[in-house]
Amino acid sequence: MRPEFHLEEIPPPTRIAPYALALTGEVNPSRDPDELLGSGRFVVLYDPEGQEAWNGEFRVIVMARATLEAEFAGDPMLGEVGWSWLTDALEAQEAPYHSLSGTVTRVLSETFGGLELRSGEVEIEIRASWSPRTTDLAPHLRSWALMTCQAAGLPPIPDNVSPLKPKR
Question: Which InterPro entries match (predicted)?
């Protein structure tokens, strides 16, 4: 994973499946809250008896959110582009899946009154879930991290380049 992407375990949901794991992630080069570029959640649900709606025993649920430049607010292709970040990431990380579903939401915030000192914001939120075709969930985690970094505006790292962790 990229050095700008930071993971932390959080309490998982407890009512949906007998077993679960939840992580939160931030795209933040410096860990300074003012430099947060994007964030998201990664949840894995496991039911050894399987669930009909999942078509399997495992379900991966992800969310990624990032602030975009204002020029993207009216882009009619923004939803398609956001969804392609997910599907391209799954393909790039060779994460086999089925039963993929989700939404891409754009939020345009305009400020008024005392908040007029702040400019309006455009936010994208990608929510999705799918059933992995394998118990190896590492490619699915990497796919979510890649999608979140893309939503946050980080350029892709070429295949022949390895990311370096910054010195502390």
Answer: DUF3000 (IPR021555)
Cα distances from 160 to residues 21, 153, 156, 157, 167, in angstroms, run 32, 20, 12, 8, 22
Q: What pTM does this model have?
A: 0.88
Domain extent listing, the chain? 5-151
Whether residue 143 contacts residue 88, with contact meaning beta carbons closer than 8 Å, is answered with no
CB 108 within 8 A of CB 119: no
CB 40 within 8 A of CB 52: no
Average pLDDT by stretches of 10, the chain with 168 residues = 93 95 95 90 97 96 92 86 96 97 90 64 93 97 97 80 58
Contact in structure between 5 and 143 (CB atoms under 8 Å): no
Determine the pLDDT at residue 4: 92
Count of C-beta atoms within a 10 Å radius of residue 85:
20
Which residues make Cβ contacts (< 8 Å) with residue 126, sequence separation at least 6? 62, 63, 64, 65, 82, 83, 85, 86, 102, 103, 104, 105, 147, 151
Residue with tokens 């990032």: 66
DSSP H/E element including 48: strand 38-51
